[in-house]
Write a structure and sequence with these properties.
alpha+beta; Pdz3 Domain; elongated
């Protein structure tokens, strides 16, 4: 912004050649570093918002995945209906004293409960379905575990937003019907995203748009009255959606779906080639980053799928699937049969087995085992056993397929060192060295590994046979049977009729990986959006947190001495001073008013020079201007809320790309707390810092910590105010000394 001060009292002699822009930041008392942290990149243009909200949406897609999603949504609605019927019947049963009515109600309750049980079983089967998300490739590979999208009900923003625009902003709400319709269409479109990058961008676009929605319409002194309903991702016990009025719940659910869509994209990749494996690794790492972001920045979630325990399990599951993809890539790229290569494969397989074992432990915890689909837990256990078997198989291959005589080209010392680091516990290096140099002992040790491999494969097949959903997955059964057959055949090759030695237990293999999974946090700046409701004015001033007086229409008479007012800043232009006794003061114009229209032409986004030109170019002797007055925030309530929430709320961040910046700053997600619904919570938005919002009352306050600093500086007697000399643009009008708060002169993004 340019720093401009224009004396309209001498308006006829004004020259704009030396004018400087000046931006006044009164949105929430924060500095420029505090206001652009969470704001998606945007430009204040008047271009229409079309074309983008449909891209990435497949509302009428007839794929197996979309049919599954539609069936899940329909069953959720049916369960919700049956639950309401049961609640009403139970209330009637308790209220009535007529025995005949009680018998009828009891009979009806039995039918309702039976229907509920059938619906929940069907929903559980749908939530357990993994096959529809897998790749269509003919290559045989172990299936991955994807997540279905959270379902939500439609939300009609029309009446609440219209009322808020009319009462808070004092404008005709019918003028914003197009914007409201666009917002509703955007939310409707993001319910059915396509399973590709365009679908991810659609979800991210809506998430970024929620920032503007929060700033425009969610205030501390008024409840917008919009309820957001989201179904639990794998809740087959209740089927009832969680409902919250807080926008944090909406944001968290959208981010969960971003992570879920990444898992579906990863599961559909053809992992028979390195290109597909790399795409799958990237997708699962991004999914892990999304779930980890939720885990670190949300607390007291209203639904189990977004609880800390559930999100921790999902992060571990995604990391395990990344590790599995790393193993698959090594098996493809490793063409040689050297001892070191076989040992590397064995250790990689052991690493995959370990991480899946950790996931299985998390899934079987008391709070999770009743909610996690049984097919998921079974699949994880199958993979843990399967890859443990593979680790022993490759260990046997390294021992038995290479003898000392045949491996003269290899360095015997390197092989010995590799084996010394290969096992978890060994009796002594000398003993192992003797075993490796003796072909017969190598054969027996390899046979012990193969025996354990066969046993592990059989255990994986046993667990697989116990799950109805997994039995339907032919490709998984083919993988298990092939690997079991391969290990068994190799074991029979080494088995001898005269081998009467005591069976020894093969030592445990030390897990090790060449590539550790990297959790990739969500990048919120990849999709740039424009504020749908930008016609309301610059967000730094025209926001829900601001307290406005009623709009006033003032008629200014043009006199020979000028209009008697001084303007400063732009977008919007501020009345910085009013000449005592001038026509502006007589008309009712006050210092601190914002000019929003001149002769019926909106000028909230107009620059300083444009507004001055509007005032001076009118041929009439009278100019009609519309102004609004910004009242101070309820600082007492906000400071109290900040003290209550400062020690309780978790801070959070998301990366944000600033215009012209070389690096990235962090932005925010949200924090919720249903138990503290009546308490406010602070928002301190700072460049490279974080902020948090109370889930129970997300609209209470914004920029509390920055506001406290503002108030502390205001009470200070030194260093807060500076005197600025207004420029004498024409060379004839006298300079004006203006007291300008330092904290309010910083450049604030809108």
């Amino acid at each position: 912004m340019q720093n401009t001060s224009t004396d309209i009292g001498e308006i006829s002699n004004v020259s704009f050649s030396g004018a400087r822009d000046f931006e006044l930041s009164l949105s929430d008392g924060a500095s420029d570093e505090d206001d652009d942290d969470d704001m998606p990149l945007t430009l204040p243009t008047d271009s229409s918002h079309n074309g983008s909200i449909r891209k990435g949406c497949d509302p009428f897609a007839q794929t197996q995945r979309s049919k599954l999603q539609h069936r899940r949504a329909r069953i959720n609605q049916q369960i919700n209906k049956e639950m309401r019927m049961r609640a009403g019947a139970e209330n009637l049963f308790r209220a009535t004293t007529n025995n005949k009515v009680k018998e009828t109600v009891a009979l009806e309750l039995s039918f309702v409960n039976s229907n509920l049980q059938l619906l929940k079983e069907e929903l559980e089967e749908l939530n357990s379905n993994m096959e529809v998300y897998q790749t269509d490739s003919d290559a045989i590979s172990v299936p991955m575990i994807p997540l279905g999208l959270k379902e939500t009900k439609e939300v009609d923003f029309t009446v609440p937003i219209q009322d808020f625009i009319c009462e808070h902003y004092g404008e005709d709400s019918s003028l914003y019907d197009k914007e409201i319709k666009e917002l509703i269409e955007l939310r409707q479109a993001m319910r059915t995203p396509s399973r590709n990058q365009a679908g991810l961008e659609l979800l991210m676009e809506y998430y970024n748009q929620l920032y503007y929605l929060d700033q425009r319409f969610f205030s501390s002194h008024r409840n917008l009255g919009v309820h957001f309903h989201w179904y639990n991702m794998y809740d087959s016990l209740t089927g009832v959606p969680s409902s919250q009025r807080a926008l944090a719940f909406e944001k968290g659910s959208v981010l969960f779906n971003i992570g879920a869509l990444h898992t579906q994209i990863g599961a559909r990749q053809d992992r028979s080639a390195t290109a597909g494996i790399d795409k799958a690794i990237d997708a699962f790492q991004r999914a892990a980053g999304a779930f980890n972001y939720l885990k670190e920045n949300f607390s007291n979630a209203p639904s189990l799928d977004m609880s800390a325990l559930s999100l921790s399990m999902l992060v571990r599951l995604m990391v395990a699937q990344v590790q599995e993809c790393v193993f698959e890539r090594i098996t493809i790229t490793t063409r040689d049969t050297k001892v070191s290569s076989q040992l590397q494969l064995a250790q990689e397989a052991a690493q995959v087995s370990d991480v899946y074992s950790l996931v299985h432990q998390t899934m079987t915890q008391p709070l999770m085992k009743d909610y996690v689909p049984f097919s998921w837990a079974s699949m994880v256990q199958v993979k843990s056993e399967h890859f443990r078997a593979l680790s022993h198989y490759y260990a046997a291959a390294a021992l038995c397929d290479h003898t000392v005589s045949s491996d003269r080209e290899e360095c015997d010392e390197e092989s010995d060192k590799a084996f010394l680091k290969f096992y978890v516990n060994i009796a002594s290096g000398q003993t192992l060295s003797l075993i490796l140099q003796n072909p017969e002992k190598r054969r027996k040790l390899g046979k012990d590994h193969l025996r354990r491999a066969v046993m592990r494969h059989e255990e994986a097949m046993r667990v697989h046979s116990l799950c109805k959903i997994l039995r339907k997955m032919d490709i998984l059964q083919d993988v298990l049977c092939q690997t079991h057959k391969r290990a068994l055949e190799k074991y029979l090759e080494l088995d001898r009729e005269d081998d009467f030695d005591e069976i020894a237990e093969a030592p445990e293999i030390q897990a090790h990986t060449q590539q550790k999974p990297d959790i990739t946090p969500p990048s919120f700046t990849t999709v740039q959006v424009s504020d749908i409701f930008q016609r309301l004015g610059p967000l730094s001033v025209f926001c829900a947190r601001a307290r406005w007086g009623p709009p006033r229409v003032i008629c200014l008479q043009k006199r020979e001495g000028g209009m008697g007012l001084t303007l400063r800043g732009d977008s919007p232009v501020l009345v910085a001073g009013v000449v005592p006794g001038g026509c502006a003061e007589e008309a009712g114009l006050r210092e601190g008013d914002y000019i929003v229209a001149v002769d019926g032409q909106d000028c909230k986004w107009a620059k300083h020079g444009e507004v001055v030109l509007m005032l001076t170019s009118s041929s009439d002797r009278e100019v009609e201007i519309s102004v609004v007055t910004l009242h101070s925030h309820d600082t007492q309530v906000e400071r109290k809320a900040a003290m209550l929430s400062h020690s309780r709320d978790k801070e959070n961040s998301r990366q944000r790309l600033l215009s012209g910046a070389k690096g990235q700053s962090s932005a925010s997600l949200l924090n919720w707390n249903r138990k503290k619904k009546r308490e406010g919570s602070g928002v301190a938005k700072k460049l490279g810092s974080t902020f948090s919002l109370s889930f129970g009352n997300i609209r209470d306050t914004e920029a509390i910590q920055s506001l406290e600093e503002f108030l502390n500086g205001f009470s200070s007697s030194s260093g807060f105010f500076r005197t600025e000399k207004a420029r004498n643009c024409s060379g004839t009008s006298p300079g004006i000394s203006v007291l300008v708060p330092v904290a309010l002169t910083a450049n604030m993004p809108r």
